[in-house]
């Protein structure tokens, strides 16, 4: 669905590269991009979305050459949920916010409202459609932004730090959304620091470090590479570390797996 070839990027000609020689291909597997702040994750996602343009290297999304498309044109293919919902929300009602992207691509109002309501039901905000979005809690604002992007029905959905400000119920709602999107054959990606959420929800994990890809593989395999993760200053999920300390042979990703292994 996405092919990235020899991608490098700097914010100015004199600045050091933020990304260097990135070569990646993305299929339908749910994919997490992890790494410390400054590793290049957000810049990479902005390049995918067309919010930044790289002079060196290329990005193909389906048959779209990202360099030749505007961010508005790419909005039909790829949706991005911002880390800070206050950077994304600006309409006066929850329903209007969820409809905005659909109306912006010239969809009829009746169909746009129907899709927006379905998305709001998915995130549990259908009882707050008349509210001003700024009166929502931070957790609810984040869910509203997710609904706004999900309503667009893009082939690719990227979440930037989806679990920030979410309690356990909110995380479970987002996990359910990820599963539903995968069932619809969407590519779901995230850039995230919540390793427990990665272990529970993402099939593939890519580790960025100093603008380069340090690890790329199945999530279980990536979290088994303790020494390489140390190099990137990334700690495995808590339950993974616990299983390792107890001498369990299997790289544990979830509490359920931990209990099963301990029961053997």
Summarize the model shown.
The protein has 264 residues and is α/β, with parallel strands linked by helices. Helix content is 39%, strand content 21%.
Overview of this protein structure:
Helices cover 39% and strands 21% of the residues. It has 264 residues and is of the alpha/beta class. The chain has one domain: Rossmann fold, CATH 3.40.50. The strands form two sheets. A six-stranded mixed sheet has the order 6-7-8-3-9-10, with helices on both faces. The longest helix has 16 residues, at 168-183. It starts with a strand and ends with a helix.
Strand pairing plus helix content: what structural class? alpha/beta
Query: Strand content of the residues, in percent?
Result: 15-25%
Number of strands: 10
In spatial order, strands of the major sheet run 6-7-8-3-9-10
List the total number of helices: 11
Q: Which architecture does the CATH hierarchy give at level 2?
A: 3-Layer(aba) Sandwich
Largest sheet: 6 strands, mixed
Write down the CATH class: Alpha Beta
Q: What is the typical, i.e. mean, pLDDT?
A: 93
CATH superfamily caption: P-loop containing nucleotide triphosphate hydrolases
Can you write the helix and strand succession as a string? EEEHEEHEHHHEHEHEEHHHH
Shape label: globular
Helix percentage range: 25-40%
The low-confidence parts are none
The whole-angstrom Rg is 19 Å
CATH topology: Rossmann fold
Number of domains: 1
End-to-end Cα distance, whole Å, is 40 Å
GO molecular function, one term: cobalt ion transmembrane transporter activity
InterPro entries: AAA+_ATPase (IPR003593), ABC_transporter-like_ATP-bd (IPR003439), ABC_transpr_CbiO/EcfA_su (IPR015856), ECF_ABC_transporter_ATP-bd (IPR050095), P-loop_NTPase (IPR027417)
Family: Belongs to the ABC transporter superfamily.
Membrane topology: Peripheral membrane protein
């Amino acid at each position: 669905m996405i092919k990235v070839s020899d991608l490098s990027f700097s914010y100015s000609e004199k600045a050091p590269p933020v990304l260097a020689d990135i070569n990646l291909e993305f299929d339908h597997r749910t994919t997490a991009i992890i790494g410390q702040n400054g590793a290049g994750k957000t810049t990479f996602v902005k390049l995918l979305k067309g919010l930044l343009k790289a002079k060196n290297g290329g990005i193909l999304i389906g048959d779209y050459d990202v360099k030749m498309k505007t961010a508005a044109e790419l909005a039909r293919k790829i949706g991005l949920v911002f880390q800070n919902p206050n950077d994304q929300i600006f309409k006066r009602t929850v329903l209007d916010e969820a409809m905005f992207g659909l109306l912006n691509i010239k969809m009829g109002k009746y169909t746009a409202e129907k899709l927006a309501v379905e998305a709001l039901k998915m995130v549990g905000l259908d009882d707050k459609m008349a509210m001003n979005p700024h009166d929502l809690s931070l957790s609810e604002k984040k869910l509203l932004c997710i609904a706004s992007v999900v309503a667009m029905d893009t082939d690719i959905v990227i979440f930037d730090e989806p679990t920030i400000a979410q309690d356990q119920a909110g995380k479970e709602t987002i996990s359910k959304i990820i599963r539903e999107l995968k069932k619809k054959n969407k590519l779901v990606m995230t850039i995230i620091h919540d390793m427990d959420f990665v272990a529970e929800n993402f099939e593939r994990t890519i580790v960025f470090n100093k603008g380069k890809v340090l690890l790329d593989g199945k999530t279980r395999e990536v979290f088994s590479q303790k020494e390489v993760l140390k190099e990137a200053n990334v700690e495995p999920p808590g339950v993974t570390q616990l299983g390792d300390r107890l001498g369990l042979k299997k790289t544990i990703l979830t509490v359920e797996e931990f209990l099963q292994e301990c029961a053997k």
